Amino acid sequence: EDVLVSGVTLDQNQSKVTIVGVEDAPGLAARIFGPIADAGIVVDMIIQNASEYGHTDMTFTVGRDDLRRALEVIERIAKEISASGVRHEDQVAKVSIVGLGMRTHAGVAARMFSVLAAERINIQMISTSEIKVSVVVDSKYGELAMRTLHDAFLENGAGAVRA
Amino acid sequence: EDVLVSGVTLDQNQSKVTIVGVEDAPGLAARIFGPIADAGIVVDMIIQNASEYGHTDMTFTVGRDDLRRALEVIERIAKEISASGVRHEDQVAKVSIVGLGMRTHAGVAARMFSVLAAERINIQMISTSEIKVSVVVDSKYGELAMRTLHDAFLENGAGAVRA
Ligand SMILES: C[C@@H](O)[C@H](N)C(=O)O
Ligand SMILES: C[C@@H](O)[C@H](N)C(=O)O
Fold it and tell me: Which among A45, A50, A111 has the least Cβ separation from residue B16?
C-alpha cells in the first residue's frame, strides 16, 4: 500500500517538561493536566509510555514562551502527588513526517529513524498518528534532521513512499 | 479558542509490545522498526518517552492478528541489541478523542483524563496529535471508557468543547 508523504516539518519553538515517577494509578494524569489547562498553557505533545513497576514518566511539550509558567504549575503538582521530580529542556526540536495512509507507517517510521541514525542524531521521543510520525531531537540537530529527511522523502519528485 | 470534538473512537483490536531497556543511542529505533516494517507488520502507535539514564522503553501497538509475528521479530531483535526484555499485552483498548483545533487540547486532554479517573480507569499510555488525544487502557474498560467519554463530550448537542 502506498503512503503519500506530503512534507517534513520542523518546530524549533518547543520546550519539553517531564514529570518523573508519577504513580501509575487512576487520577494522576488528570491532576497534572487539569491545572496546566486551567493556566491556559498550550500543550503540543503529551507522551506517556506503559509502566511496569507502578510508576511512569509523563512528558509534554509547550511553546518556549510557556515554559516558565508550565514549570511553576508542574513543580507544585509534582510535590503534591509525590512524583520523584521534574526535568525540562528549554529548547527541543520536533521533527515530523506528514502524510496520508500513515496507518501503514511502519516503513515510513523505519526509514525516518534510519535517516536520523545515519546522521548520528539521537531520537529522544517518538509519537505517531495516522497523519504524522514525530520525533523530538536535540534542538541543535533540528535543521539537519529536517533537511536530510526532506532529501530522503521528497527529493524524488513524487513524495510517494512505498510503505 | 474553541475546540471542536467530533467524536470518540474505540479500537479493541490492538495488542501492545514494549521493548524494555533499549540503549538510548542513535540507530536503535531504526534497528527495531526496520525489521518490523520489512515483515509487513502494520503498526498503529509508536511511543517512546525521554530517558534520563541512557536507556528507554519503546512501545508500539499492532493489530491483534499481527502480535505473534511481531513478537517473533522483536524477541530476536531485543537479544541482538541487548535490550532488557520484551513485554506484551494480547489485547488493549485504544480510546481517542478526535477533533479540530486540538493544538489547544490541554483542556480536552485534562477533561478526558478526569472522566476516566472518575470511572477508576487507569491510563496506561498517552499519545497526542493536533487531531487526536489517544489513551491506551485495559481492554476490559474499553467500552466503558468510550461510553463515558462520549457522554461527557458529545451529549450536549454541539460537540463543541471550550478548550
Ligand atoms: C500515569 C497516569 O496516566 C495514571 N495512569 C492515570 O490514569 O492517571
Ligand atoms: C531509543 C532510540 O530511539 C534511540 N534514541 C535512537 O535514536 O534510535
Answer: A50
| Cβ of B91 below 6 Å from ligand 2 | no
Nearest residue to B47 via CA among A33, A83, A109, A159: A109
Q: Are the C-beta atoms of A111 and A161 separated by less than 8 Å?
A: yes
Q: Chain-centre distance of CA A47, in angstroms?
A: 7
pLDDT digits (tens, 9 = 90+) for A37-74: 999 999 999 999 999 889 999 999 999 999 999 999 99
B99 and B112 Cβ atoms separated by less than 8 Å: no
Q: What is the pLDDT of residues A91-113, one digit of tens each?
A: 999 999 998 776 667 999 999 99
Convert the pLDDT of each residue in B63-109 to its tens digit.
Answer: 999 999 999 999 999 999 999 999 999 999 999 999 877 666 799 99
Select from A38, A52, A69, A129 the residue whose CB has the most chain B CBs within 10 Å, as the one to mutate to test that interface.
Answer: A129
Please name the member of A24, A51, A105 whose beta carbon is closest to the beta carbon of B43: A105
**Which ligand ends up closest to the CA of A28?**
1
Dig out the grid coordinates for B71 from the structure: 513478537
Q: In whole angstroms, what separates CA B99 from the centre of its chain?
A: 17
C-alpha cell at A20: 518523573
| Nine-digit cell string for A68 | 516558565
Q: Cα dist. A100→A25, A139, B21, B98 in Å?
A: 35, 27, 32, 17
What is residue A159's DSSP assignment? -
3-state secondary structure of B139: helix
Distance of alpha carbon A112 from alpha carbon A136, whole angstroms = 12
- Of residues B35 and A52, the one with the higher pLDDT is B35
* All cell numbers assigned to A48: 506517556
pLDDT tens sequence across B65-78: 999 999 999 999 99
- Per DSSP, B101 falls in state S
